[in-house]
């Protein structure tokens, strides 16, 4: 498929001259849901920019469980920092939906990194990533499972949230209950139990295909206090 740079904030400022400097090999690679994008030990030879879909970044902790660190969507990148520091990947990247990814090699990255606008947008995403990390740490250190689940649902609004006409918010997450549990730092059984509890309270609705409808944000926020 043809690459429309205008669809991605990291690139939509580029002039025709700058686009012409990029190699003709820049392309979109497609991954099916569940396919690996990169693994620990992979060399920093590419920067991945999501064109469509979602990927999760995770690590395996000492007891073998998966801990999700980030979920990235359209316009977000992975690998820019690895290229800058020439460091191998240390985490896993896996498609949580069918995904299309722009893959930039070292030459194209070197062209872009000298553009001040690109660099500022890279820094802006990096700053937002730090905030995501802080929210993850906050979720993991709290003991109360209700609070963990509520904080996660609120954080997922920024990734998957779609506000409906009646003011409710639909989370079309494309991830499993096990992945939700991993992201919250609890077991799958606890996640299922807490979601059912929130549904019984009239705060959310559990819909088909893993969708979650947040019906009462005010009451949901009370669990985070």
TrEMBL record:
**PROSITE patterns tied to this protein:** CNMP_BINDING_3, HTH_CRP_2
The organism's superkingdom is given as Bacteria
Molecular function terms in GO for this entry? Answer: DNA binding; DNA-binding transcription factor activity
Keywords assigned: DNA-binding, Transcription, Transcription regulation
Q: Does the keyword Glycoprotein apply?
A: no
> Which residue range or ranges hold the HTH crp-type domain?
143-218
Q: Which GO terms describe its cellular component?
A: cytosol
Q: Does the keyword Iron apply?
A: no
Q: Where is the Cyclic nucleotide-binding domain?
A: 10-130
- Please report the name of this protein according to its UniProt entry: Crp/Fnr family transcriptional regulator
- Species annotation: Anaerococcus porci
Taxonomic lineage of this organism? Answer: Bacteria, Bacillati, Bacillota, Tissierellia, Tissierellales
